[in-house]
Structures are given as structure tokens and as C-alpha cells.
Amino acid sequence: MVVNYFNDGQPRTIAVLGKEILKMVRFQKKKLGGHYDLTAKQMAQLVKDYYGYENVDVKYDITIQDIKDELDKGNPVIVPAAGRRLYNPFYTPPGPYYHALVIIGYNDRTGEFVTNDPGTKRGKSFRYKYDVLYNAISDWQTRAKAFLVIPRQTSQKPN
Q: Of the residues 68, 87, 97, 119, which has the fewest C-beta atoms closer than 10 A?
């Protein structure tokens, strides 16, 4: 989602996105020997290796204000989450155990983060209350509060 946003922001069909995901899965299997849930650090490495983005940052022990600060810089924020703690009513019950989503904005008046959540067909611009999303943020294995920031790249190498 973030790379699409940076490249041209044009919506992709489910078929096109599905093919891209399968390419990425094949790449992950070749690189890591399998297709696994990834930690924030592993996700950042995948972005570097697959898309050729050099400047990918993982931050730990983050706060709600840290997320807002990155969004204020124009950077979408990717967060790993304990999916069931998001309490999204549109997930297939009981919801994903581990999940990642992109935070694209916030609204202090309503106390909500605006996200693009690939876990549901209704995930575009889905809103989560600050505390709900923050409490669900959990890196795979370590359970640390973490996020990935992929600033707009000036160039990328082909994958």
C-alpha cells in the first residue's frame, strides 16, 4: 500500500494486488526459506530487499505522539498489531492473531487514527480510537510497541 501510494497513488484492482502479493511471497520464500509472520525489523528488511528502499526506519517504545509526528511529516506509518485487540467489527471472527496496517492520518477532535487496513474490504480510511489502536500495537515475538516509517524515496532499485 505504501509503495503504491508513493509511486502514483492510483488504486489497483484486487487481481493486480493479488499478483503483487504472490510475487512478494515467492521472494520471501526464496530469501527466508518460507513465508512467515514478520517482526517489524523483518518487515523493514523485506521493504529494503524487495522494493529497494534504503531509508526504512523501525522505531520501538513508540507513543501516540510519535505516530502523529511522523504523520505530520507526511510519512505513512506501518504498525504491527495484535489483530484481535483492534476489535474491528468487519474482520472475519475471531479476527487475525497478528496483523499489520497503515496509519495515514489522525483527528484530534474525534481522537481517532485514520488507517488503511487490508484486513477487511471496508478497510480504506477505517478509523480506530487512539487508545484502541495503540493498545493493539504489538511486534511479533517481542510484543514491543513498534512502527515502520518509509519516507518518500527519491529512487529505488528494481526488485
A: 97
